[in-house]
Specification:
Largest sheet: 8 strands, mixed
CATH class of the largest domain: Alpha Beta
Strand order of the largest sheet: 7-6-3-8-2-1-10-9
Radius of gyration: 19 Å
Number of helices: 10
CATH architecture of the largest domain: 2-Layer Sandwich
Structural class: alpha+beta
Helix content: 25-40%
């Protein structure tokens, strides 16, 4: 169950924007997206995110990270110009629209990276299953056969933020390590890395005790958004835990859009966007 969708201007770096709350089962969650600076290749993600979160999250909150920023921090972003697709990659990419297994692989370079990640024979099998899916009116089996490493590949598109409009971002390899590291720094808070794609929302790594299915359902409308929002972090806060981010904005300080039913909570002082 969702609240009414709202339109909200893009917040300033370091601010939290409240998105429509959602109810999953019997639990209701407030949802905030956090605008960050543009993450750079090989950036230390844990240290970079601490200023946006420490002292602002509540015990019991769930901090959800986009798999894309995790992968970028790991250096798993490949310049488009450095990828030279083989003929079979060009053929399969051309068939994407007909097979219906996601426009993200419609570029030959992205398909080439999928083949490198999963292996040629697995991609061919997945494509065959995808063709059968199309005939039967099903969807999603291509990615289920190809695997998570393929499903999480993010090819450049018209809304991709520079400079990653010239990169193919692969699945993160060490998401679990980041979850553990950030969870230790933010005590009482669970951390999740999630991939939102054509198939839906899927948790790639999560703190112990996290209800992965619940988080997936809370994220399946992609509150992070696409394009220039630069909001790769979402805070899921159980209702009753207090909506306002603590100790850093009062109700009077919050910029509230009453007509839209949403609010932007500014941080205290500037947040440095310099790399560590």
């Amino acid at each position: 169950m969702d609240d009414r969708e709202t339109t909200q201007a893009v917040p300033t770096t370091g601010s939290w924007t409240e998105k429509p709350a959602r109810t999953v089962g019997r639990r209701r969650f407030h949802r905030f997206v956090v605008k960050t600076h543009t993450i750079s290749l090989h950036e230390t993600i844990c240290e970079s995110l601490i200023p946006y979160l420490q002292g602002k999250v509540h015990p019991g909150d769930i901090v959800v990270l986009s798999e894309k920023i995790v992968a970028i921090g790991e250096g798993r972003a490949v310049p488009l110009g450095s990828v030279h697709p083989r003929p079979v990659a060009r053929f399969l990419a051309h068939q994407v629209g007909q097979l219906g297994f996601g426009l993200g692989l419609g570029r030959a370079e992205t398909m080439e990276m999928a083949i490198r990640e999963a292996g040629l024979w697995r991609i061919l099998l997945a494509a065959s299953v995808g063709a059968v899916d199309r005939i039967g009116g099903r969807s999603g089996d291509f990615y289920r056969v190809a695997g998570r490493r393929v499903a999480a590949i993010d090819g450049p598109g018209p809304t991709t933020i520079a400079p990653y409009d010239g990169y193919i971002v692969l699945a993160p390899a060490q998401a679990g390590a980041l979850v553990h590291q950030l969870g230790r720094r933010l005590r009482g808070v669970r951390v999740v890395v999630v991939d939102v794609n054509d198939v839906g929302s899927e948790v790639l790594a999560a703190s112990e005790g996290t209800d992965r299915r619940q988080v997936s359902r809370l994220m399946d409308d992609n509150p992070m958004g696409q394009g220039s929002q630069s909001t790769p972090v979402v805070i899921l806060r159980p209702a009753g835990k207090g909506v306002r981010p603590p100790l850093w904005a009062t109700e009077d300080e919050a910029m509230v859009d009453q007509s839209a039913g949403s609010a932007v909570w500014p941080g205290v002082g500037p947040i440095s966007t310099a790399l560590p």
